[in-house]
Amino acid sequence: xxxxxxxxxxxxxxxxxxxxxxxxxxxxxxxxxxxxxxxxxxxxxxxxxxxxxxxxxxxxxxxxxxxxxxxxxxxxxxxxxxxxxxxxxxxxxxxxxxxxxxxxxxxxxxxxxxxxxxxxxxxxxxxxxxxxxxxxxxxxxxxxxxxxxxxxxxxxxxxxxxxxxxxxxxxxxxxxxxxxxxxxxxxxxxxxxxxxxxxxxxxxxxxxxxxxxxxxxxxxxxxxxxxxxxxxxxxxxxxxxxxxxxxxxxxxxxxxxxxxxxxxxxxxxxxxxxxxxxxxxxxxxxxxxxxxxxxxxxxxxxxxxxxxxxxxxxxxxxxxxxxxxxxxxxxxxxxxxxxxxxxxxxxxxxxxxxxxxxxxxxxxxxxxxxxxxxxxxxxxxxxxxxxxxxxxxxxxxxxxxxxxxxxxxxxxxxxxxxxxxxxxxxxxxxxxxxxxxxxxxxxxxxxxxxxxxxxxxxx
Length: 459
Hints:
There is one protein chain. The chain is α/β, with parallel strands linked by helices. The chain has three domains: about 1-130, no CATH class; about 135-255, Rossmann fold, CATH 3.40.50; about 265-455, no CATH class. Helices cover about 50% and strands about 10% of the residues. The protein has a four-stranded parallel beta sheet, sandwiched between helices. It is globular and about 75 Å long. The mean pLDDT is about 85.
């Protein structure tokens, strides 16, 4: 993994994106040269090629073709590349109409054919290489308890481009074993010897009680000095799963782990991004919002919008604005209720508003007012926040920044409808609070497009 603006990115996914950018630029240039006689006067071939490549990379990104956390092979790429190139064709055609200096001419269609073939060929080469065990990162776990088991499960579920392999666990006296005996490394050798014997490049410490006299401090120091990386479980989950896991979290990690950028510059950049993104998407979605308002009104004659108290930055309570997607008597007894799968309180039009996330669009007004950001942890109701702060460690940390219309937990996890779901989503929220940047906001925005297009995680 490599870190770009505090966010961890798969090396293979980043390399794939760079290679495919070169392939698409070459496809656009090759097609333009083939149809050189078709060039328009005053056209700009370089600009045309750059816009062509950028639009297609954007389209493939919105359909998740560079996500390291999902299954990715040639079959899945072939399934998604057709709609991705279809979306790219529509966007590129619109830009050609708006920007006179673009000049695809007859070369445009040929460029898409060459680009599609080039991308598939490049992915065949990269995926064949990625499946090689030589490229899998090998690591040893210090500890054989519950956290070690979770690390092994994460490695076994890793379907994407970034793969790692747990070669074994080193038992530490006093910790209850929760991993298969087959993965426990034999005693008698030092950690450095085991790492070199198994070709491991990293040691991950999963032991929760490090004050135990059996904790191998000297051996870990020997590994660090011997060129083998040493990290703790919290850093490992942050890097590999974009989560800050509560079960492996020590207060010192939050205090000394860096991040949590609350500078004036970051605040100004984020506010500018919030206003620009909300204005652009609000204007583009205005016809959809007008149509949704008319449908809601026609279905049961009730109010189009509803206001609900939510908890924002520093515990500030504000009223969120959304399209009404439930019956008017959804909470007739006045007691807040978690939304459930196939909730009977959801209206017919509300089902589609939720599935396509159209019900969230009026929150643009909350962004303009300054109560919310475009990207951030989702604001929760005060009734649930009070319970969660009492039951879930570090839950209140998510309130140190403004809540958002979309967020990392929304694009990585299903709809939250229980305390357990809230804990799992909090782990993504903590990662975002710690590592938030404009780069991460843009990535989340791209993933949000995919979630809306595919209707993921709605209830």
